[in-house]
Amino acid sequence: MASMPKLSINLSPAFAALGPQREPQLCYALAHLRGESLADHAVEWALVADASRSMRIPIVDDAQFRALIREGGAQETMVDGVAVWQLNAPIPPELRAAARSPLDHVAHALHSLLERLGDADRFALVACAEDALLLLGSTPGDSRAELAHGIERLRTLNLGDETDLAQGIELALEHVSRGRVLLLTDGFTRRPERCLELAAYAAQRGMAISTIGLGSDFQEDLLTAIADQSGGQAHFAHKASDIHPAIASELRAARAAAGGLSATIAPASGATLRRVTRIRPALSVLHDAPTQQPASIRPGDALGEGIALLIELLVPADIESRAALASITLQAPGSAPASAQLTVRRYAQPQALPADVREAAARANIARLQRRAADAVAAGRPHDAARMLATAADQLGALGAEQLAQASREQAAALATIGQTDTLRLKEITYATRRLA
């Protein structure tokens, strides 16, 4: 049996350094969380695959498309001033037969991963479009033939043209009692608010929902929110061939990570918790509602270097030196909780933030600017979004992320001049910023 993970919290700095002024002050602390399993353990997980029409359409890869061009089957032309490729003839039957749909790539990835499932592992598979269908209930890893048959059915389904991911998530949560769910989609869904409700429900059960967004037309704000709310990971698959490594990454994380990790930050009397931003492993604002009550979050997988949370607190004017400012508790099922207390030190002169906290605060501000820019775009305020993206670009440049900064500047300029962005490029920026740590 695998050992239970040992949980730990380290604070940087160990105390909040305040200046002499007797007025409310903003302070920052980095909480470093660790909760990696001491040994690999059996996993229970489910894949919810979008099986709508777009996921069933065969797509030629780069090599196949180049062959089509060489044979005169496609040529470049201009449409409304934009260069596009136009087919000159029907796609040859042999090329059509060789082209694989996104669902083909999913099935191929799952067949490959069957070899990595242990006998004690369990896997469930759900397909959804307008309807949801359970292809595999929670099936043990030693039932290879049953698993392979369920996976192969994925290629043959027709569940409608549109997508209701909430049905699929609900069905998966009915058949998986612990572990994690992996959600894969390439488009928009009905009832996005229900998806978020289910993410909150999964978090309450100690389950994570990770997401894979494929291509350029999915709702990245929804998929990242589902992952962040439940403690899962958010993956971006630029093309269908990226599905395999994303699914493999999830299986590795499920096997090595402490499941059901939760953190509670409780501000002391009079103090206000303003914001919690995860700096590592994926940059994201996890809590953004000022409160004087304890706040619980799902910080994600504490693998590798662990998790780093930037905690922002508003300190009351009358707090005394060495008084408690906040307590942080880390919990996981089957493990002894870890806790740490942030205290206050007053100095005669204002104190500079440590370099690691200062850099974390800069990253947190970039994440916040990007979120606000996305909200402004959705609200039809492109010029506000352009201004925030441009500010984020300057801060990215200051951190040395020049390629990402330049991409942000280009999208800010597009918003300012024509009021819209390149949706694929904006997704690349969103997910690259999450990897900024």
Note down, in words, how this protein is organized.
This protein is α/β, with parallel strands linked by helices and 437 residues long. It has four domains: 123 residues, Immunoglobulin-like, CATH 2.60.40.3670; 173 residues, Rossmann fold (3-Layer(aba) Sandwich), CATH 3.40.50.410; 36 residues, no CATH class; 78 residues, no CATH class. The chain is 37% helix and 27% strand. It is built from 13 helices and 18 strands. Strands 8-7-4-9-10-11 form a six-stranded mixed β-sheet, sandwiched between helices. A five-stranded antiparallel β-sheet has the order 1-3-16-13-14, with helices on one face. Helix 4 runs antiparallel to helix 5, helix 11 packs antiparallel against helix 12 and helix 12 packs antiparallel against helix 13. It is globular and about 80 Å long. The mean pLDDT is 91.
Named at the architecture level, the CATH assignment of the largest domain is 3-Layer(aba) Sandwich
| Helix proportion range | 25-40%
Beginning-to-end CA distance, first to last residue: 34 Å
Total count of domains:
4
Strand content: 25-35%
Main sheet summary: 6 strands, mixed
From the spread of the alpha carbons, the general shape counts as: globular
**Overall pLDDT metric:** 91
* Distinct helical segment count: 13
* Number of strand segments: 18
- Helix-strand category: alpha/beta
Rg over CA atoms, rounded to whole Å, is 24 Å
CATH superfamily label of the largest domain = von Willebrand factor, type A domain
